[in-house]
Amino acid sequence: MATVTRPRRSVLYMPGSNQRALEKARTLAADGLILDLEDAVSPDAKEVARTQVVEAVKAGGYGGRELLVRVNGLNTPWFHADVVAAATSGAHAILIPKVESADAVRQVDAIMTAAGAPDNMAIWCMMETPRGILRAEEIAGASPRMGGFVMGTSDLAKDLHCAHTALRLPMVTSLGLCLLAARAYGLAVLDGVYLDLADDSGFEASCVQGLELGFDGKTLIHPKTVDAANRVFAPSEREIEWSQKIIAAHAEAAAEGKGVVVVDGKLVENLHVENAKRIVKLAEQIAELSADLGK
Ligand SMILES: CC(C)(COP(=O)(O)OP(=O)(O)OC[C@H]1O[C@@H](n2cnc3c(N)ncnc32)[C@H](O)[C@@H]1OP(=O)(O)O)[C@@H](O)C(=O)NCCC(=O)NCCSC(=O)C[C@H](O)C(=O)O
Ligand SMILES: [Mg+2]
Is 21 in the pocket of ligand 1 (CB under 6 A)? Predict the structure, then answer.
């Protein structure tokens, strides 16, 4: 069973160079934020973005939202200083772009540790190159700090020479390999961004597909998409009620020495109960986070 440690239905990117966005994020109902130093920031704004992001995280005000700092890639002039600065910022995780090997993760781990990062600060990896996808398993298991994968479907589509289609068939193999590796190693895994901000129904359909594939949530580029992602990736009332019902029925059956029970004509075994417990726990965590954010 995949471990649920916190809700990650909606995780919003913002350019670290955009002070207004860093401020605005304190008021948004996103479960998590990616404070970006990489692709959303132009080369001449890299240092300013790094300073602003570290100051914003240290200043706080983000409540229970999960904070990830996306640093520049290993082969860039900004990488080392980004990791050192993020390591003691108080963010929950460093997100490394374009990861292609376990060694890259271990390099970041070593820099973080030397810079004084707390033991519970995680490493997340952008999965967005063909080599990275093919090595998803070794990357997932590269360090005890590994916390999750974020699908970088824009970079990946560029490298695969594939099209962005509604059903994402050209992307399904890559998404599936990363989901397998993430679940095998107990990591979180977030779906890629939807680029057409004018297409609300297309966005929602891509969230539904991401949920059905097994993603924990969706990465977003604009606040207007937060509510739809939160809605789609949250368990419905019906699912919660059904989960509670089968947990109770199975516990009653277990007390009578039975391993299975039939509820409303459906066979319920321990595996269904495990999944039901995950759903109930996720619903509780969403309620706690919503109360914390006042949303
Ligand atoms: C796309 C945007 C440039 C649009 O910005 P803007 O024109 O300012 O939008 P609005 O006027 O509609 O904004 C309304 C208010 O919302 C705030 N806002 C907008 N976007 C964000 C955000 N991302 N985070 C926080 N707040 C945001 C505005 O400040 C307005 O607030 P107010 O002042 O109160 O009116 C912009 O949305 C944007 O920059 N988005 C993020 C782009 C980004 O980070 N891209 C990189 C990540 S995606 C990626 O890299 C994919 C991956 O690597 C891959 O390969 O797939
Ligand atoms: Mg990318």
Answer: yes
Q: Which ligand has an atom closest to residue 11 CA? A: 1
Position 2 in a domain? no
In which domain, by residue range, is 267 found? 237-293
d(CA 80, CA 167): 38
ipTM of this predicted structure: 0.98
Number of domains present in the structure of the chain: 2
Which pLDDT band holds residue 4 (cuts at 50, 70, 90)? low
Measure 140 CA to ligand 1 centroid, in angstroms: 29
From the list 83, 85, 23, 78, the residue with the least C-alpha distance to 54 is 85
Residue 219 and residue 109 share a domain: yes
281 in a domain, yes or no? Answer: yes
26-58 per-position pLDDT tens digit? 999 999 999 999 999 999 999 999 999 999 999
Q: Which residue's entry shows tokens 């759903």?
A: 279
Q: How far is the CA of 151 from the centre of ligand 2 (A)?
A: 8
Do 253 and 197 share a structural domain? no
Looking at residue 193, which CATH number applies to its domain? 3.20.20.60
Q: Examine the domain organization and report whether 23 and 116 are in the same domain.
A: yes
Do residues 229 and 289 both lie within one domain?
no
Give CA–CA dist 268/282, Å, rounded: 20
CB of 31 closer than 8 Å to CB of 6:
yes
Residues annotated within a binding site for Mg(2+): 128, 155
76 CA from centroid of ligand 2 (Å): 14
What the block records as the tokens of 221 is 């580029």
Q: Residues 52, 177: one domain? A: yes
Q: Is 193 in the pocket of ligand 1 (CB under 6 A)?
A: yes
What's the whole-model pTM score? 0.97
